[in-house]
Design brief:
With 176 residues, the chain is an alpha+beta fold. Helix content is 40%, strand content 30%.
Length: 176
């Protein structure tokens, strides 16, 4: 979860306090439920879809099943982004030009890709690294003359790895 859910935002979005959610989950036997079951339980209680996910994550953190930033698989993912002047295609060109000469990133070899694809509203760049992690770059339009390059690094082993890669990708975005 990128940000801690505030007590006010939980009540505003779900109509229940965090203590009410805890009592509800306990009454439903949630401590033995997996993530998908927790989301379904939150949904059954009226939580909107996105909020059901967030309440489930917060509950998993509450019971010690995962730490902030950790996915249900136990790995960590990070995301950094930057807004640029220019179209989707111009942003993709800027990114691919910066990455083209690289056979590795931060000392880790690029094992698969990079693969570039596009849809009407998005541009994508994806690469698999030798350490088993994956880099996914999504480029979207922020306005008619601005685009956002978002770098996601997935399947990281620890929060320390996540923080190291967050810094690395921020520096890459600042250099191009």
């Amino acid at each position: 979860m990128a940000k801690e859910l505030s007590a006010v935002s939980i009540v505003a979005a779900t109509g229940r306090t965090w203590d009410e959610w805890l009592a509800y989950f306990e009454s439903e036997g949630a401590v033995t439920m997996n993530h998908r079951e927790l989301v379904a339980t939150a949904s059954k209680a009226g939580a909107p879809a996105w909020w059901g996910q967030m309440i489930a994550v917060k509950y998993e953190q509450h019971v010690g099943r995962r730490v902030p930033g950790q996915s249900t698989s136990g790995t960590f993912n990070i995301s950094v982004s930057k807004t640029w002047e220019g179209s989707l295609d111009e942003a993709l060109k800027r990114w691919t030009k910066a990455m083209a000469p690289r056979s590795e990133v931060s000392g880790v070899a690029i094992k698969r890709g990079p693969d570039v694809s596009q849809s009407e509203k998005w541009r994508y760049w994806r690469a698999g690294l030798a350490d088993g992690t994956r880099v996914v770059v999504n480029i979207s339009a922020k306005s008619a003359d601005k685009s956002v390059i978002s770098v996601q690094h997935e399947n990281l082993e620890s929060d320390d790895d996540a923080q190291q890669w967050r810094g690395y990708w921020k520096s890459v975005l600042n250099e191009i």
